[in-house]
Amino acid sequence: MIDFYTWFTPNGRKVSIMLEECGLDYTTHAVNIGKDEQFDPAFLKISPNNKIPAIVDRDNGRSLMESGAILMYLAEKSGKFWPQDPDGKWKTVEWLMFQMGGVGPIFGQVHHFERAAKEDVPYGKKRYGTECRRLYAVMDAHLEGKSFFANDEYSIADIAILPWVARYEWQHVDLADYPNVKRWFDSLMARPAVQRGMEIPAG
After folding, report:
1. Is residue 112 included in any domain, yes or no?
2. In angstroms, rounded to a whole number, what is the distance separating the alpha carbons of residues 31 and 203?
3. Digit-coded pLDDT (tens) for 149-197
4. Range of the domain at 116
5. Can you tell me the distance from the alpha carbon of 91 to that of 83, in angstroms, rounded to the nearest whole number?
6. What is the CATH number of the domain that holds 34?
């Protein structure tokens, strides 16, 4: 059994989708970051960086923060969505890191400057909006003739990228401009486990 600490964010949804796809038993604990619940001292013991998501695996007492690390852990635990032959493994890690180092930080800055900033910052909007669209172009070119990001099989790389693309409207992006990304996105969003994972925590 896994204790899963999360909120309604792309990073949280990476892990909820993974848990649903793997069919692992878990209990969800909502951490309302709008009320600063991530700074609770009890949560700090689980997630030293005060960020969601985080998990505690009751099977062995191991706790983990950082969504990319959690995806790799759950893939290893379940034996799913992360090929272990060297070529397949590192191709998957390559695109997982593309999300962790590029898509997540850049799209997150777009969300901030477009939706949360207390003042209008045109430079921030232009800088991060331009880089966001560049990353969409990278993804679109890579997905030409492919169904998935790594090894042409569904993996933790796809699971990591999907919840960030799901907020394309927040980024003022029209997926029709990136037809390969749109095809990939529509295909994954039709998966029942993805649909369930996107609704966690309930309500």
Report:
1. yes
2. 13
3. 999 999 999 999 999 999 999 999 999 999 999 999 999 999 999 999 9
4. 86-191
5. 9
6. 3.40.30.10
Indicate whether this model's pTM tops 0.70. Answer: yes
Do 115 and 187 share a domain, yes or no? yes
User: CB count, 10 Å around CB of 107?
Assistant: 26
Query: From CA 111, how far away is CA 105, in angstroms rounded?
Result: 10
The pLDDT-based confidence of 203 (bands split at 50, 70, 90) is low
71 and 98 co-located in one domain: no
3-state SS, residue 30: strand
Q: Which residue has the tokens 């749109």?
A: 182
Q: Of 94, 101, 99, 87, whose CA–CA distance to 161 is shortest?
A: 99
For tokens 């799901």, the residue is 166
**Rounded CA gap, 45 and 151, in Å?**
37
Contact 95, 149 (CB under 8 A): yes
CA distance readout (Å), 69 to 72, 141, 164: 5, 27, 17
**Euclidean distance between CA atoms 121 and 124, whole angstroms:** 5
CB atoms within 10 A of CB 99: 30
